[in-house]
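Closing statement on the adenosine-5'-triphosphate sub-project.
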Amino acid sequence: MTQTQQLTPDLTTGTAARTRGLARSYGTGATEVHALRGIDLDLPAGRLTAIMGPSGSGKSTLMHCLAGLDQPTAGSVTVAGEALEQLDDDALTLFRRERLGFVFQGFNLLPMLTAAENIRLPLELAGRSVDRARFDALVGTLGLADRLGHRPSELSGGQQQRVAIARALVHAPAVVFADEPTGNLDSKASAEVLDHLRRSVREQGQTVVMVTHELDAAAYADDVVVLVDGAVREHLVAPSRDALVQALGGGR
Ligand SMILES: Nc1ncnc2c1ncn2[C@@H]1O[C@H](COP(=O)(O)OP(=O)(O)OP(=O)(O)O)[C@@H](O)[C@H]1O
């Protein structure tokens, strides 16, 4: 048994997502691109993991495969104990809606709805009632309590992204996937958003997997996976900034 397997053998002992031999290629023949080349990864529950690496290294592809938004060419993906390849389209859609949360660049908030309505929308679409205590705790953690009646156009970029995070978290998902969540925010708003994301991990035991280009953003993460050319170069646990710089610098 390997060291990794001893540390995180299954979900009950804290693995939120696991891949084995995960490969994803695009195209065929001379134009074939191997975006992921057989990735074995165990992402622990209750932590904020950043996925980093040079442009084209496979970060988005990995996140999309983990989140059931893209299908691997080979290998397996298990999230919250579910082997995604065993789910049909309907079951996968339901699994994503019930068990996963998503935060993307650009927020994707509905402009005619207030912040509170945007946050509640996924639950209402799923026909589920809002857990009032969780809702209040979330908007408190995210610093949105006095902004709930505002529409997106009346909120700053950072506030809009915090609404998007609350919306992703309100149904207590097993894993939240965030793709460059601070990509179009200034540095102050980025710091606020990342701080709130980290607090949701610390205070509510949330699991977050975040793709980022930015060293400053990765500094908020507990762990950092460094991809190079479709393979995991490093999986750093609670790295120092120096260790992170070294791991990233080595890829250039
Ligand atoms: N739909 C697709 N069709 C063809 N090639 C693709 C497709 N999606 C991704 N690729 C290729 O797969 C490789 C990995 O892409 P991916 O977007 O996962 O990298 P990334 O690390 O997220 O890059 P970036 O940091 O620039 O967003 C790249 O060479 C990319 O061109």
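The chain has one domain: 46-72+84-249. With this model delivered, the sub-project is considered complete and its resources will be redirected to Aim 3.
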